[in-house]
Recover the amino acids of this structure.
């Protein structure tokens, strides 16, 4: 495998936004006249990638549509780069790799760039992509990843898709990319294993070493 590009998820992979997620999750529940959940319950459901259990089935589509928009509009004082992310992105960029960030947030690319700039990461990123608020698929990121690959001219089998959630891995596998799941977002290893990623790492800090192994 000759790696030409690395496609990173944003939340839980590059930036710790767990507190923001919790606040917006409860805010969205309350907007739909549903009871909020405790932080402990949130952590337990999140670690199992089972937050849908807190949302009635008939409300889930509207819930996630609103959540993904709101998630991109707010911030938390606790938001910040995950340990080692800045150094890792710089190293990969210095090696000549194309660095892409693809987020499931329903927002415009400008807001993603602003957040990357805020956390000192923008200079190491070449291209970003986010969901259109009107998109039909609020789960997989196939459309968004294929968009950046088309713009960069990189084929799926020449890139690595890195993320902390099942949707990242499922999307990467669907398009034929090498997939790396990271534990930095808080989803349990056995849950990520169920998506059958090519590799599971503690965080993105290990990626340069993995690329060296696959030269």
């Amino acid at each position: 495998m000759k790696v030409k590009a690395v496609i990173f998820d944003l939340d839980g992979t590059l930036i710790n936004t767990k507190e923001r997620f919790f606040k917006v999750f409860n805010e969205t529940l309350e907007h739909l006249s549903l009871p909020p959940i405790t932080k402990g319950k949130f952590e337990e459901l999140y670690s199992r990638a089972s937050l849908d259990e807190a949302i009635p089935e008939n409300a889930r589509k509207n819930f996630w549509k609103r959540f993904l928009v709101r998630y991109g509009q707010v911030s938390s004082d606790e938001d910040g780069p995950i340990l080692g992310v800045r150094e890792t992105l710089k190293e990969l960029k210095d090696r000549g790799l194309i660095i892409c960030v693809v987020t499931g947030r329903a927002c415009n690319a400008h807001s993603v760039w602003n957040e990357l700039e805020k956390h000192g990461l923008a200079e190491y990123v070449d291209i970003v992509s986010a969901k259109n608020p009107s998109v039909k698929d609020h789960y997989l990121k196939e459309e968004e990843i294929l968009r950046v690959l088309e713009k960069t001219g990189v084929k799926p089998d020449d890139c690595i898709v890195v993320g902390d959630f099942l949707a990242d891995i499922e999307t990467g596998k669907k398009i034929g990319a090498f997939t790396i799941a990271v534990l930095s977002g808080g989803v349990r290893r056995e849950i990520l294993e169920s998506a059958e990623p090519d590799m599971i790492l503690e965080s993105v800090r290990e990626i340069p070493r993995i690329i060296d192994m696959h030269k």
User: Anything to note?
Assistant: Residues 87 and 205 are 8 Å apart (CA to CA). The chain is about 40% helix and 15% strand.
